[in-house]
Amino acid sequence: MARKLIFIFLIFLTILSVDVNCFKLQQVLILSRHNLRTPLTSNLKDTSPHKWPKWKYDYGYLTDKGALLESYMGEYFKEWLNEQGLLPPVCPTADDVFVYANTKQRTRESANAFVRGAFKSCNISAYSINSEKMDPVFNPILRDTSEETKRKIIAELENKLRELDLDEAYTHLSEILDLKNSHICKNDLLCDFSQFKNEIVYVIGQEPRIVGPLNTTNNVMDAIIMSYYEGMANEDVAWGKINKAQQWTLLTKIIRENQNVRFNSSTLGRNVAKPLLKYIQGVFTDIPPRKVTVLFGHDSNLNSVMAALGLKHYELPNHYEATPPGGKIVFQKWHDEKMNRDLLKINYVYQTIDQIRNTYYLSSKNPPFWVDLELTNCSVDKNGFCPWEKFQKMLISIN
Ligand SMILES: *[C@@H]1O[C@H](CO)[C@@H](O)[C@H](O)[C@H]1NC(C)=O
Ligand SMILES: *[C@@H]1O[C@H](CO)[C@@H](O)[C@H](O)[C@H]1NC(C)=O
Ligand SMILES: *[C@@H]1O[C@H](CO)[C@@H](O)[C@H](O)[C@H]1NC(C)=O
Ligand SMILES: *[C@@H]1O[C@H](CO)[C@@H](O)[C@H](O)[C@H]1NC(C)=O
């Protein structure tokens, strides 16, 4: 009986491995957010009578820890690409791999760190254009000057603002900040975030912006969560006042919603991500195809691309942000040898809160988290694949 069961089990295993073996990875495009950085703004002191922690880097810079975390990502991906047989265990050539970053220090240095981890002592270096200005490919600005597009995008922004439900988060954040004793309360009478209106700023050549409590509280929460990721002492993270996961979940809703309002709508996404979508389309149509492309941009890039492509709602377990630092959308082209067809698979790959805060080294035994993503217009099968051709048609239609 036992022997018979083992026999059946072996047949089962054989069937499984045959099934797996007929898919071959052909091409990968990784769209990554930069890793852990310092807060983006210096003018937080008015929001609280408490003292803010000091950072030893400039504003919006990748920290040393962020660079280390990103080099772990690089090492991990090199290992994965070797295992899948897409890259050789020796150094790949510059024809096989291209790592391309936006011009900000945090994106450039994330790309350099990824290359250090993945292609140590290989002749591969990260590329970015030679300018201090935003690279147009990564610049998530409003471009289309037509009134029709403006009307649509404003309607999308208004819709998202109408659905905002942040009162509970605002109240809790006000307690943590001691808002009633802050400068903005005493001088500007901004004593209750939920009493103020968020205004849409729609200017061609600028990012879609919201001025009001959403922006202010987002800057505050961003500074707080970055200090948590950085591993600062408890008293330097929101003055020791956030101790429970539920508090983080509630408060980081502000960060998720700020991105959701500003970048997660379809007409808006297609507009602000236009050059990036064109670039991505080009990578998938160039002949001969380059095996691996890694792009380093911002949460705004990931969100606008996902909105333009119509990604289904997803959850990232063990994280508070919807687009975490160092998190990657991994577009994969697979070939199904049995059926002779090409397939798309998309994953979100990211370091969990623990992996970030405790600087955990990554390997195939301690991998970053992988979450399956799905396009609304390209349903996946049980293996997470959707037809490649359908995806290509979609890229053409939105470009
Ligand atoms: C390194 O790569 C660059 C460009 O990809 C190439 O021009 C150069 O010859 C390579 N150097 C070596 C030592 O292979
Ligand atoms: C958001 O608020 C900060 C101050 O907290 C301000 O410096 C910045 O200009 C505002 N950003 C936008 C996009 O309005
Ligand atoms: C983006 O918007 C869709 C609805 O249009 C929603 O289901 C999804 O949760 C949003 N994503 C994020 C990260 O907020
Ligand atoms: C998905 O399909 C709907 C209905 O045909 C269409 O309106 C929408 O533009 C499509 N989205 C994408 C990203 O192709």
TrEMBL record:
<dbReference type="GO" id="GO:0050308">
    <property type="term" value="F:sugar-phosphatase activity"/>
</dbReference>
<feature type="signal peptide">
    <location>
        <begin position="1"/>
        <end position="22"/>
    </location>
</feature>
<dbReference type="Pfam" id="PF00328">
    <property type="entry name" value="His_Phos_2"/>
</dbReference>
<comment type="similarity">
    <text>Belongs to the histidine acid phosphatase family.</text>
</comment>
<dbReference type="InterPro" id="IPR000560">
    <property type="entry name" value="His_Pase_clade-2"/>
</dbReference>
<dbReference type="GO" id="GO:0003993">
    <property type="term" value="F:acid phosphatase activity"/>
</dbReference>
<dbReference type="InterPro" id="IPR033379">
    <property type="entry name" value="Acid_Pase_AS"/>
</dbReference>
<dbReference type="InterPro" id="IPR029033">
    <property type="entry name" value="His_PPase_superfam"/>
</dbReference>
<dbReference type="InterPro" id="IPR050645">
    <property type="entry name" value="Histidine_acid_phosphatase"/>
</dbReference>
<protein>
    <recommendedName>
        <fullName>Glucose-1-phosphatase</fullName>
    </recommendedName>
</protein>
<keyword id="KW-0732">Signal</keyword>
